[in-house]
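Researcher: Here's the sequence for the chain we discussed earlier.
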Amino acid sequence: MIIKEVTKYLESKFPLYFQEEFDNCGVQCGNIYQEISGVMVCFEMSEKIIDEAISKKCNLIISHHPLILRKGINKIVPSDRVGGMICKALKNDIVLYSMHTNIDSGEGGGNDYFAKMLKLGNVRVLSPHSNLFRKLIVNVPHQYSEKLKKALFEIGCGTQGNYDNCCYSQLGKGQFKPNKAANPFIGENNIVEIVDEEHLEMIYPTHLQHSVIQTIYENHPYEEPAFDLLALENESKNIGLGRIGELDKEMEISDFLGYLKKTLNISVLRYCGDEYKKVKTVAICGGGGSGFIDLAIAQGADAYVSGDFKYHDFFKSHSGTLLVDIGHYEGESFIKNIIFNLLKEKFTNFATLISETEELSVRYF
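Model: Thanks. This is the structure I predict for it:
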């Protein structure tokens, strides 16, 4: 089995188009067409983890945080932290791969896992993604519609949540007159032609647009196929960053903070808010979620739990929402368990390991 088969499976669960614009999920470096020998799963790439992967004969390392963000790097040299890891990985035929905001946003990903850990009910997406999909509208002679639909479905069109091969169709009449320079598939030059056509509509992920256009031209019989590509503003109710839900029962703030520390196994947190307020509705976002404080407040959260709050962010607690900073690492380090479990359940012909050398580099005194 080659490494690409593993990454393809992971991307079927958490597609790369779920990621944020700043992000760089997927392959960081290496040859994904080599045979897989083993997988090492971690939260953050480090040279120590690469050494561990070498010693345990793992040639695929999957981290949560990407090694290279969208803004890129200026040079790759062994003396640089990132460059050194890339050099060592390539020298030892190791592929570095990351699942970051795509797994944060996806169903069953980091934020869903976080909500499940806190036993929240009636869970909704805090910041739903929009513009993930576009709509294709195309007319095709009725006898060629099945061929075109099959080709479009094969590249990923017509998938909506847990359903695939989805489309709307309607029979109608198409009319055209080829001019003298045309080479019509149906009809004759300078004569109006009326054809029984099928009107097809289906959605597709935005990133597939080039493939959609290419597939139409390869599988549509007309010299000049008629089609429209429409941007959609629909929000996805299941895909996006953060979650909001309800506790089984209302808690005093002191009890809620103790519940967080015990459940997430953390020794310290920062918070600001009304000491006498009770907590029932809780918003969460794994990692650094200070950008969603206003959303949590607007959606009526009694408490918002995330990481990387700045000093002035806490002033927003005057609205009545308790703000709790549990730390960036503490709010998503468990994501490596999601990746590990996915691979263990799907693949049995290679070893999948969680790094034993990884530890939080930030210390509290």
